[in-house]
């Protein structure tokens, strides 16, 4: 009977080690960045004209996508354009928290953010950036995943080549590779921290679950403005939840979906895209 090399590697080599070996260059760069940060401190990064963040080098590398990639540039610019008054952002899938820091910068001194992120690597980095920029008292960092209910969920570490991302575990990930992460709902966070004016969701295919855990907020008299990433291609690959589920849930709640330039999305065109960044308002 032939030996499954990948299965054998999973049995013999811990996931943390495999993550480091998958991309030696990224791993060495991560180590080098950490050493330079320890020796000389954080660096300045110009996110937009007039907006500079002090941050560790690994965070700067992650933030560059919102400077270099046209779609992510448009997404962040669209968000910034809506921060004209005090903002309370729920940043679900915050990673290193760039949208949280944008809410504080452009929403003014009365603004705050609740950054929800399951990865311990990412939450540590987010807190470091908050401290370096004097914003630690304006950002609540919640190390958890958001979903349709409260409890715990199994997640796996993608490694430094993905800057510390966590993804939801599936049948291919044995229990030994999984981390049990607290599961929270947007509605519960709203009861704890106050209702959001803005809700950003970037959760690698779990969009519907997050929205189902936010029904009270979304049905309220003053629902938040939504910024979402729909990972339709990822859902099709997994063969689980239907890509249309989150889109149709929003429609049933009276939300209209736009692209980041304000163009109304056609439902079928939206669903054909593997990854699409949108705005939605009721």
Characterize the structure shown:
Helices cover 42% and strands 23% of the residues. With 282 residues, the protein is of the alpha/beta class. It has a single domain, classed as Vaccinia Virus protein VP39 (Rossmann fold). It has a seven-stranded mixed β-sheet, with helices on both faces. Helix 6 packs parallel to helix 7 (98-107). The longest helix is centred in the first third of the chain and has 17 residues, at 24-40. The radius of gyration is 19 Å and the shape is globular.
- Output the CATH topology: Rossmann fold
Question: What's the shape?
Answer: globular
Order of helices and strands: HHHEEHHHEHEHEEEEEHEHHEHHEHE
Count the helices. How many? 14
Work out the number of β strands: 13
Percent strand equals 15-25%
Just name the CATH architecture.
3-Layer(aba) Sandwich
Mean pLDDT: 87
The percentage helix is 40-55%
CATH superfamily: Vaccinia Virus protein VP39
Q: Give a short account of the largest sheet.
A: 7 strands, mixed
Judged by helices, strands and strand pairing, the structural class is alpha/beta
For the record, the CATH class is Alpha Beta
